[in-house]
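Today's session is about reading a structure prediction critically. Students often jump straight to the picture, but the first step is always the sequence itself: look for stretches that repeat, for charged clusters, for runs of hydrophobic residues. Only then move on to the predicted structure, which in these notes is written as discrete structure tokens rather than atom positions. Here is the chain we will use throughout the hour.
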Amino acid sequence: MKNDSCSHLPKHSPTMQFAVACVLAATFLLVSGCANNAARQDQLDEYLARAPQLNEALFGTPRPVPDFEELIALTPEQRADFLKFFNSGVNSRYEPHRRVYAYLTRRLADTDFQHRTVPASATIETRSGNCMSLALVTTAFARLANIDIGWQLSNTDPVYSSDGSVIYSANHIQTRLYRRDLNQTSYSFTIGQPYLLVDYYSDRVAGVGKALSETQVIALVYQNLGIEAMADGQLEDAFWLLRTGLEYDPANFNLYNALGVLHRRAGDDPTAEKLYQFALDEFGDRLIVLRNYRKLLLASNRPEQAQQMEHRIMRLPDPDPYPLLTLGDEAAELGKTDVALAYYNKATDVAPYLHEIYLRKARIHAANGNLKRAERALRKARNRAWADSDQQMYQAKLMTLRDR
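Below is the predicted structure for this chain, in token form.
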């Protein structure tokens, strides 16, 4: 299964960008050893000391935030089912981490991808969620089996998707299941593979990723939940979730970006600008921050500063397909179908998983009378859509096209 996109993209609506942890867009290091941990904590404290003050009063009284232990809690039935498998005589001959892997493969192999971060028990019950949801599931079962675990970000380009006026930038999180006789710092001196990598949504060969600490993963969970709440219009809940994430990992630049977007939506542009500027000063130029900062500058009637931001954006590699889609849409509206198709083809090269691109191609092919090409494009759109409603919509369009 693959990370497919959300269901629609308005033609020219202003968009805010987020990084979500399936979904993530930051690079982290796993630091071990007491002295290094202490040094890292000092560094994290310094980030919080330097960070702009958040406008808490704008978001009302603190909202309840789910505890991480609640998010990885299993129901009694789920625990019993796992332990029956794990402790069975047939399976007990295998190493514990392999038993956990085998159970996950059997129990969750047909999980449907959805752009929501849900607790482990709900993911198991519904067999749906994003890769962060499934990382919660793996964590829950590994703890039950007394298996050491780790997490990493896959070294792949981020996956982009759209949901209304929000564009998500989503990197891929994977979970490591370690053998009991090996810890996370000994594998470089061991012949053979010391852990199994759990990856539900990738058909690529697993590679080395950036290691994450538990606190970084917890921060990413709250980042996801906060962004999802913001997309749902629940700004107060979003603030307290993102703020909680910042307490776990104040070195996560995506949290400052998301809090900047949130303050803008709540009407506080000055605080949003401080958050964007802080993220750029502390972590360097990041596309996701630069784009949101540019939107703020344009809305504030500061075109010269916005142009400077555009120059910084142009210097960075860009895997985001949506600017290409926008250019293609503009060309299509002007009747320049060849130009539009060229932009859509470039977007396909960048993001072949995005079903919206193939819908746009189908519209142009159908308008030009090339029904066979339109049908092929619609089939690709249908096959890449993760939502049942989108698949049904594309199937209906295919039936209509065949009747022409």
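Discussion point for the tutorial: The chain is about 55% helix and 10% strand.
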